[in-house]
What we know:
alpha+beta; BirA Bifunctional Protein, domain 2; 2 domains; rod-shaped; binds 3,4-dihydroxyphenylalanine
Amino acid sequence: MENEITNARNSFMSELQGAKDAESLESIRVKYLGRKGMMAGFMGKLALADKEKKPALGKELNKLKLYIQEEINRKKDEFLADRDLESEKTDITMPGFFRESGRLHPLTGVLNEINDIFISLGFQIAEGPEIEKEFYNFEALNIPLEHPSRDAFDTFYIKGNTLLRSHTSTVQIRIMEKKKPPIQVIMPGRVYRPDAVDASHSFMFHQVEGLMVDKGIRFTDLKGILNLFTKRMFGEKTMTRFRPSFFPFTEPSAEVDISCIICNGKGCRVCSHSGWLEILGAGMVNPRVFEMVGYSPRKFTGFAFGMGVERITMLKYGIDDIRLFFENDIRFLKQF
Length: 336
Ligand code: DAH
């Protein structure tokens, strides 16, 4: 066994010499000092050695073990010292990078919510041009030239009969011209009106138009869809109220109110102490509009609605000035 110990020492020394990096050093360590390594083997044999030889052999083995340990550590330090420390230097005093993450404009966020609700109810999304022909903004929607309701939808004229659309109802016509029923679509977009800017008026704002046409669509379908929408948008407790109204493109027409989300219908400053807030216009598509796009009013019925995105966003977040949406003031935008 003495010979074996000497051989082990010699082979260790030459292997150590050949070690080129920390990895090969580690495999040498495992080979000699590991749990199933050479030294462990010697210890096993020691137990079986002659009784009188044991102390000397034991001493010899311990010496070798210590020697191996020390040599490995020394080599390890050598490798460490050889590393290119300069290239590994980290300046921990350097200031960190901070990337401010962007966020959605509140109108975009609310528009996404509106879209999601209607998509979940089977509606598709469509868009139409903001620069429009007069025909789509008026005549096709049953608003003849001399009709007084033209005033309500007055807009910016560009040239001749080209204008900026004053409502998204124009897109209803564009869709029905292209496609036969069934139609179930919402149409979000910007609209323009020559209003003086104040806390509740802007010359540009956003609407979402809705249209559903098929055989046998009834007013109760409109009520069902809008009730569902207002509950999802403003909370389960929200109630709706349909008030008779007038729009040239629907018959009958209604204005739809929700129970005031601030006071729950008790009456407060926001709802002018009425308990109700108006959020959109709606109705059954006027047969005259169907005729304009070549649908048979005897065959098809449908409902339509239009809502203002700014108004809904203001109600949802308690914003009291529409101008805040368009001023790009980061202190406002950061809150959403
Ligand atoms: N276009 C109307 C407006 O801008 C809103 C509206 C009312 C749209 C009734 C509709 C509707 O589709 O049926 O005030």
